[in-house]
Structures are given as structure tokens and as C-alpha cells.
Amino acid sequence: MSEEQPKQEKQNKEFDWFDRPKSRRLLWILLWAICGLFLLLEFTIKRKAVFTIEKMPFFFAILGFVACAVSILIAKGLGYILKVPEDYYEPEEDRLPWDVEGGEDNA
Fold it and tell me: Integer distance in angstroms from the first to the last C-alpha of the chain?
């Protein structure tokens, strides 16, 4: 039985790499490094600007951030609009006594 327990623990901790503090720190450092690299590359890329605002440094980074933030806010708003009560499909007065969660003992 003691041999099965380590196997089970290993199986349960298969995806715990992301839960380790060192791994989280490494991922944050990688994220910031990649973001910094792309911001530095912004100065080396020559783009044809259609509108004058596109000539502004970091315009596309700011545009992407704003678009992502607006998408999140729209999704939040839709969540409030589309939310339905928990008993939407079967109101409580229409339930039968044995339909209560917990089994037939509650009838």
C-alpha cells in the first residue's frame, strides 16, 4: 500500500509545475523579458503609417492593451445581461418533492 501512495501522489502532482513559486517567478520573468524585447524591436521596425497616429511610438502595443481591456469589459457586461436565475428552467414551485438534491430520503 505504501508503494501505491507515492505513485498516486506523483500522478496527482503531474501538473504542479505551475504551482511552484520558482516556476511562477520564472514565468513572470519570461513574460516581462519577452514584452521588453518586443518593445525594443519596435524601434527597429519601419512601418508605413496610413494615419499619423500610427507614427506614435508604441502605438500598436497601446492599441492591443486597450482592445484587450475593452473586450474584458464587454464580456463582463454581457455576463450581467445574460445571467439567469439558478432555477430558470424549472422554478421551485414546479419541482416534485423527490427532485430535491440529496436523494429520496428528503421527500
Answer: 42
